[in-house]
Amino acid sequence: MNVPIQWPKAVNEIPKAIFTDAALFEREIETIFHGAQWHPLAHRAEIPNPGDFKTMLLGRMPVIVANGEDGKIRVFFNSCTHRGNQVETASCGNRKAFECPYHRWMFRTTGELAGCPGTEEFSPGFDKKNYGLRELRTAEFCGLIFATASAATPALETWIGGLAKTLAGSLGGDGRLKLLGYQKVRYASNWKAYSDNDGYHAPLLHVGFRLLGWQGGQGSQTPTPNGHLGFESQLKPVVNRDFLKDPTLIDLKATDPESGSRIAQLFPHTVITKHMDVINVRFATPISVDCTEVHYAYFSHVDDSEELMRHRIRQSSNLLGPCGMVSMEDASIFNRIHIGSFTPGNAEFQKGVKRTDEVWFDVKQNDESGNLPKWDYYSRLMGFQRSEAT
Ligand code: FES
Ligand SMILES: [Fe+2]
């Protein structure tokens, strides 16, 4: 039998076993992903027209995010109200109605049950109006659509808390976006390793940053008590560009260098970035203890010129695309954390650690200690007790 996980006393340590423990993963699905948290599932720019939809997983629960024929965006459980069949299998598209193929029950894009064959022989008192697709609680911030399966989740504004300004900044300021496209990735890593990227690694792992001097600007890092983390930093424009054949990689066409980089990491594992001219939302899904699926959605601003939009596509591909300068390096690290975490003991945070007996919120731009409030929040949420031993 597995030894129960002991949470260390020092706040700058986490047990490596939390990345590989399959039973803990199942508990996280119930407590975090099906529990009292908001989860971003779509940006309204992905489904701008009536009938547009996308399907997602909220933890294990399949959901449909649908722009209804009345123009309202709703989130439904993707499960037929008859016998529970998954209704929609496409990842996105446009429908006049959602039809369950098993017995042909038909649902409007607003969720109501429009028709079902053979009602004259249904149980006494059957009424179609009680059989619409089940709707989840939703809320919206700068066009980002959040859902929660729990009635206990606080209001979205409260949940976002001190991250509101960074989040709005990372969504183009006002959230008036246009979808450019997606790339979908499965990382061979636990979701917590994927979401534990820190302020320390950027100029060290991402050699391209150093080469181009991108990380030279002043910046700040803001953790919140409920596990979010925001980064804001300047970007120094690159002076010597001659060594690049295509300097558009480093052009800032729409971005003031003063506000070059905005990153909002929302608990548990959604990342929204506005880095250089790239606007990107990473919708993540925990597939299993050792697999995390991430949908990178790229956006331009609705006011962009055609030229600026094309520039954003090129820069998005070069920076975060499958062969981009940043993605491959991070992907490798997520996997190597997973492999290394099968060994005993704790992982330690050092950069910016001022004390080890309690967490604090005043962290510098390149401190890895900005991740500690999140780990403290996670450990309490999951019911771990800090061990008394030092
Ligand atoms: S399960 Fe959907 S129509 Fe029967
Ligand atoms: Fe990184």
Walk me through the topology.
Layout: E1 13-15, H1 22-33, E2 39-43, E3 52-58, E4 61-67, E5 73-77, E6 92-94, E7 97-99, E8 106-108, E9 113-115, E10 137-141, E11 144-148, H2 156-160, H3 164-170, E12 177-187, H4 191-194, H5 202-205, H6 207-212, E13 219-223, E14 229-233, E15 261-266, E16 270-275, E17 278-288, E18 291-301, H7 306-320, H8 327-340, E19 346-348, H9 372-381
Antiparallel strand pairs: 1-19, 2-11, 3-4, 3-6, 4-5, 7-8, 8-9, 10-11, 12-18, 13-14, 14-15, 15-16, 16-17, 17-18
Would you give an account of this structure?
The chain is of the alpha+beta class. It folds into two domains: about 40-140, 3-layer Sandwich (Rieske Iron-sulfur Protein), CATH 2.102.10; about 165-380, Naphthalene 1,2-dioxygenase Alpha Subunit, Chain A, domain 1 (Alpha-Beta Complex). The chain has nine helices and 19 strands. It has helices at about 20-35, 155-160, 165-170, 190-195, 200-205, 205-210, 305-320, 325-340, 370-380; strands spanning about 15, 40-45, 50-60, 60-65, 75, 90-95, 95-100, 105-110, 115, 135-140, 145-150, 175-185, 220-225, 230-235, 260-265, 270-275, 280-290, 290-300, 345-350. The strands form five sheets. The protein has a seven-stranded antiparallel beta sheet. It has a four-stranded antiparallel beta sheet with strand order 5-4-3-6, with no helix packed on it. Strand 7 and strand 8 form a beta hairpin. The longest helix has 15 residues, at about 305-320. The two termini are about 25 Å apart. About 40% of the residues are buried.
